[in-house]
Amino acid sequence: MLCRASPALSCLLALPALISGVQAGWNPGAKNNLMVYWGQNSNGGGQPQDLKLLCDDPAVSVIAVSFLTDFNPLKLNLASNEAGCTKMSGGMIKCPSIEKDIKYCQGKQKTMLLSLAGGEYKGNGWGSAEEAKKTATNVFDLFGPAGKVPEAQRPFGSVVMDGFDFDFEHETKGLLPFAQQLRKLADGAKLILGAAPQCPFPDATLGPVFSGGVKFDLVAIQFYNNPGCGLVAFKGQGGKKDAGSTYNFEQWAKWAKTEGQQTHLLVGAPAIEKVGGGAVSPAQMKPIIEYSATFPEFAGPCCRWRRRRW
């Protein structure tokens, strides 16, 4: 049957009772956090998606506004969701309507992150550690606490994002000093950092940042595009994984407990079949969530993109 879905329905259909429920914002002590992405392809096609509507969904706790795709100079690319935005000097956009919507979402106690890089990022990083740190400071000044940059030059005006999400998909030189600087600044402002590695462990791009001692508050692992360790590799029922299953949440949980400095993990899944490979049905997702939730490091699911209709 074809029907209109709520913003997070395709993920929620897969969740057992212990995961579903109302969640105001990011809660590291809970297992029912639901993180979704808004911005590029967030509606499963070319149509814009209402951010306020997404924030009206009581199940959604974290929203990653995606993406900041360029770093020299800094540029946002929100695809079809840029209606009402205007170009500023240097190519950055100014978005009063999105500023208003983000404030609405934060008023609903949603945790709003700015996602960095994404698949559209084609750069190779920075030539020096100092250059990387300077860029991290610029990102923080534009999207963190106001004051360093005039409000008129900030893409979302007076909005203070609640943190930043690292979604670097390929090798990026200088990523460790960039992350170290952003972590330092985030700590001073009590903001959070998230990351979205691929499921092969260690992640080829973010692995050096993880091993470099940068603390991430949440890590939303992309359990797709990689059939060897992704959702499609899971076999099991009743909160248990079969011996032959290569779904590797346990490996990530062990890392999170030790080298990951007690970070919290989310199971990343595509909410539409078109995104990458490795999407599974709600019926298939349910035992995956049940198994993953047996680990104390599990904090909930992450839908990379939502589908408009189900």
From TrEMBL:
Question: Where does this one sit in the cell?
Answer: Secreted
Signal peptide residue numbers: 1-24
Boundaries of each GH18 domain copy? Answer: 32-310
One GO molecular-function entry: chitin binding
Regions that span the bilayer: none
**What is the protein's major site of localization?**
secreted
Q: Name one GO cellular component term.
A: extracellular region
- For this chain's UniProt record, which GO biological process terms are given? chitin catabolic process; polysaccharide catabolic process
Catalytically driven reaction(s): Random endo-hydrolysis of N-acetyl-beta-D-glucosaminide (1->4)-beta-linkages in chitin and chitodextrins
**Keyword field:** Carbohydrate metabolism, Chitin degradation, Chitin-binding, Glycosidase, Hydrolase, Polysaccharide degradation, Secreted, Signal
The EC designation for this entry is: 3.2.1.14
Query: PANTHER family, per this entry?
Result: ENDOCHITINASE
Record protein name field: chitinase
Lineage of the species this protein comes from? Eukaryota, Fungi, Dikarya, Ascomycota, Pezizomycotina
Name of the gene encoding the protein in the UniProt record: 20354571
